[in-house]
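Reply to dn_fold:

You asked what the input looked like. This is it:
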Amino acid sequence: MVSCVRKCVTAKVQTRADGVSDSAGPIVRFGPNRISINSATALRDIYSTRANVQKSSVYSSYKHFFSGIDMSMTTIDRRKHAYKRRVNAQALTSATIKSLEERILHNVRVFCDSLVEERLVMAWSSPKDMTRYIGWLVSDIMGDVTFSKNWDVQRSTRYRKFVEDGPLGVAGIHLTGHMPLLLRFGLDRLLFRPLIEGTRQLNQLSKSITDWRVGQGDILDGQDLFSHLLRARDPETGDRFTHDEMVAEAGLFIVAGTDTTITAISATLFYLLKNPTALQRVHSEIRTAFQALEDIRIGPKLEGCNYFTACIQESLRICPPTGSLLPREVLPGGITVDGEFFPAGVDIGVPHFALHHNEGYFPEPCRYRPERWIECDQATAIAQSDAFAAFGVGRTSCIGRNLAYQEIRLVLGRLVWLYDMRLADGNQSVDSKNMAVGRMGKRACGDKHELNEEFPTLDRFVSMHEGPMVQFRHRGYKE
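and this is what came back:
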């Protein structure tokens, strides 16, 4: 528990040692009643729909900040979670996502235009901190497609502080889940004010945006994801979300709908620009497949750019948006995982970052090798897929996975088609008291992998990061 709390409070650059030690083996006890298992078999055994587990009590803290109501991702009761998941699924169909494409593209166009200064014409732009720029973009997208309310943080500074501090709210919720006595005695506000303030802001935004959106009535019917939630009913029971449940789900969409996309795009840019051969291959694939920028849209043509998709997959492997484990409490009767029995009451889980860097599934795990996903035999492909958990697995896998992938492809595809890109000189990360490294990379895989730089992410349940610092120039310019 202490290690989990320390990560939330101070943040920590994720390493292969998070959740596993080469000398300790795949099963590690990291707390009095907590077990971490670094294996793909454990991923299946623990998170499958039939596993004899439920979410750990760590998740119970969310409802403290949301009027006693859990969102679907933090609901511990399995029946209630299944109900909320069924309702949410009706709002995130492929057809619905496709219908929202123009709203996504409007924000992507604003984003692309913001990366180059008009006065420079064909020269390189000033360095851009891509974590911040992408964070602003994704927040505007989620506001548009979820609530029909664009916060315009790409062009206005009014809401930027909340967008940039949002992950602190998630860290605050996670922290109090590990230390519930903080809530009982009100010590959370005294000892961890910045984290708890972020949590309070998340609650306020969720409530205000839900109240506004519900107040629009039928005016916006069918135009955004929230309209589908408002009219969706559980196909099994006929129940629908209450207003308070809507507020809680709004918090889910605001947080879960942004962090994965921001990390995936930032990390993919970093690795492509660190690997010129991969970048050149992506340039060729995208620019050959699409003759015009506006041809890059959701559909089989973009999804069919296999190397491009492999680059995204490899970035998510090295930098999973949630690198730590998602704890599950063993229920009465116990559970057998990887041949080992664990009794009721034990919290157990698989550390995503460590699993994604497990050499048993991913040889040379610290090397960026997109080819591993498309140039391998069937057995290897299955083994890698079984050990990949960037969007979770089983009954609690990310229900917004398809939306995230479509956004990631649209943003990166248009960037690659439109611009030449390079890392700013020295590729220094932005100065920050929270960032634990100076130059990007060189720590996540330990000393023996020092030359194979990784994009550093800080583990506060969700991944936090800065950079990369990137310069842009319209394609085709010759020095």
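Residues 5-13, 16-21, 428-444, 447-452 have pLDDT under 50 and may be disordered.
Hope that clears it up.
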